[in-house]
Amino acid sequence: MRFVFRFSTRLIVISLVVIGPLAGSSAYSAEKASATPVLETQIGDATFYGSSFEGRKTASGRIFDGSQAIAAHRTYRFGTLVRVTNLQNKRSVNVVIVDRGPYGKNRREGAIIDLSPAAAKKIGIIQRGQAKVRIEVLAWGNGDPD
Questions:
Q1: Which CATH architecture has domain 37-139?
Q2: Beta bridge partners of 93
Q3: What tens digit of pLDDT does each residue of 39-80 get?
Q4: Which of 87, 113, 131, 142 has the fewest Cβ atoms nearer than 10 Å?
């Protein structure tokens, strides 16, 4: 019994050391990401998902949750981490690509990324619905590129 207790205690300590920084505040993540070299940059418009997508499956198989910092891009691999900066107010948010888009009218009008409502709110585009942004790839995902 003592062995099980020691093993469990060690496992908890190791988990806290390894997972703790990953589950830290968004300020830590943003700070770390800002020091990361930019792998690719795009300029275009950002739009955001409507509420009808909530709870639906994305192209990557993940269930859409508008409260998370996620996005859709037409070509980036799933799991790619990008920083999206609103060029008007200079506010940024880091998002993970989990879906394909934008399509239709938004794409024809210059949109290059669809943001979750939470990400769109963070960079201040909820009122206008669309804004000129810079997308910077911080880390390539391992997911399917199709």
A1: Beta Barrel (2.40)
A2: 84
A3: 999 999 999 988 888 999 999 999 999 999 999 999 999 999
A4: 142
What is the full DSSP assignment across 22-69?
A: GGS-HHHHHHHHHTSPP-EEEEEEEEE--GGGTT-B-TTSPBP-TTS-
Domain boundary assignment for the chain: 37-139
Per the listing, tokens 């950002």 go with 46
What does the pLDDT look like over 87-121, one tens digit per residue? 999 999 999 999 999 987 777 678 999 999 999 99
Distance from C-alpha of 87 to C-alpha of 22, rounded to nearest angstrom: 28
Residue 132 burial (CB count, 10 A) = 14
Residues in the chain: 146
